[in-house]
Amino acid sequence: METALIDIKKKVDAGLRISESDAFALLSSNDLLSIGMMADTVRRRKNGDTTYYIVNRHINYTNVCMNGCKFCAFHKKPGDNGYTLSLDVIREKAVEGKAAGATEFHVVGGLNETLPFSFYIDMLHTLRDVDPSIHIQAFTVVELAFIAEIAKLPLDETIRLLKEAGLGSVPGGGAEIFHPDVRSALCEKKISGEEWLAVSRAVHKAGLHSNATMLFGHIERKEHIVDHMSRLRSLQDETKGFLSFIPLVFHSGNTEYTGIRAPTGSELMRMLAVSRIFLDNFPHIKSFWIMLGLKMAQLSQFFGVDDIDGTVTEEKITHAAGASTPENISRAELVEMIEGGGFHAVERDTLYRHIKR
Ligand code: V47
Asked: Which residues are CB-contacts of 123 (< 8 A; sequence separation ≥ 6)?
């Protein structure tokens, strides 16, 4: 083992928290197997050899977005040829999801100024009416901040009304990279890192869980990654409201960064492993197989990951940016992928309760 890693391993073995400079050292090391072993120690302590998956259905209700983030190939500017799904189409997609056994609707869209607050409430009612037992995970905290503006209501009240209409939890998107040097280049119109964290705090205060993402593999540097994870770790110390951390791999197709060097396989595994070691207060680390690819997602189980997300169906955001993975996958294929790596596949609901079929 590299000497720089020996003291870090001692901390991990003793269950102690690693520092920001430790995380930086890990991100700078090529000793992938040692880093993987440390991540595996944390993973097994928290989740044993279980790898979770979920039967879910993604619904992207609009791609019209006023933010115009440079990394995003999914959005259309207001006035261009974007789409907004009608409530009837949303209902059809939800009915399809229910027929396929979904336990979660994952609902995310752009910031579309033409939609009134009532659209969001009606959409939640529509989904809830399809099957009230299916959990609705909807609206990134970026959308929540925007919906509050549209509603002309305080954020807390907006969240309360959405919760009353069926919102069950909040997905982790929109975090990107918090550091202003990167954020101002990638997505200058988006809420700041501080605001993203403040809205997440409000979500947790309202009694809802949420996830946290980080978009990596573009113009960020190691110090930005450490800063991002450190801010998340501090907020989680305070609220304990995050369920999972999801490092999202940037896909450059059809974006302003087309052709930028993509992370290598070992860089992907190192990023996941370091997040597992550093974020000692996050119960779960998720690798989104759609972005990672099936084979890398299988390997990620050895690098701290205990959740490979779900059956998804109709993934629009990464596929707009050139993802070569399928847009959906069956339960059987997910189980085969997990168990093919020697791990124990457990179907979960959104809140990580085990599902018995
Ligand atoms: O916030 C946008 C990212 C996110 C690209 O909470 C891109 O369980 C890669 O957050 N290349 C939305 N990524 C998706 C998301 C998510 C996905 C799965 C599960 C969960 C969860 C959350 O997608 C955006 C942005 O960070 N994104 N464009 C791109 N070109």
From this structure: 61, 87, 90, 107
Give SS3 for 106: strand
Query: How many other C-beta atoms can be found within 10 angstroms of the C-beta atom of residue 9?
Result: 17
In a domain, 352, yes or no: no
32 is a domain residue: yes
Output the CA 98–ligand 1 centroid distance in Å. 23
Residue 290 contacts residue 318 (beta carbons within 8 Å): yes
Q: Is 52 in the pocket of ligand 1 (CB under 6 A)?
A: no
Taking the C-alpha atoms of residue 76 and residue 83, their distance in angstroms, rounded to an integer, is 8
Q: Work out how many domains the chain is built from and give that number.
A: 1
* For the chain, percent of residues with pLDDT exceeding 90: 95
pLDDT tens, residue by residue, 204-227:
999 999 999 999 999 999 999 999
Instruction: Give yes or no for residue 58 CB within 6 A of ligand 1.
Output: no
- Chain-centre distance of CA 5, in angstroms? 29
Q: pLDDT value at position 357?
A: 86
pTM, to two decimals: 0.97
Which residue range(s) make up the domain with 262?
19-347
The tokens 């969240």 sit on which residue?
A: 159
Whether residue 75 has pLDDT greater than 90: yes
Q: Find the CATH number of the domain harbouring 100.
A: 3.20.20.70
Assess if residue 216 is contained within a domain.
yes
* Residue keyed to tokens 């190691």: 222
Return the axis-axis angle of helices 20-27 and 222-239, rounded to nearest 10°.
Answer: 140
Mutate which of 61, 76, 140, 248 for ligand 1? The one with the most ligand atoms within 8 Å of its CB, which is 248
In this model, does residue 164 exceed pLDDT 90?
Answer: yes
Query: Is residue 202 situated within a structural domain?
Result: yes
Give me 66's structure tokens: 């006023």
pLDDT tens digits for range 38-49: 999 999 999 999
The three-state (H, E, C) secondary structure of 120-168, written as one string: HHHHHHHHHHHCCCCEEEECCHHHHHHHHHHHCCCHHHHHHHHHHCCCC
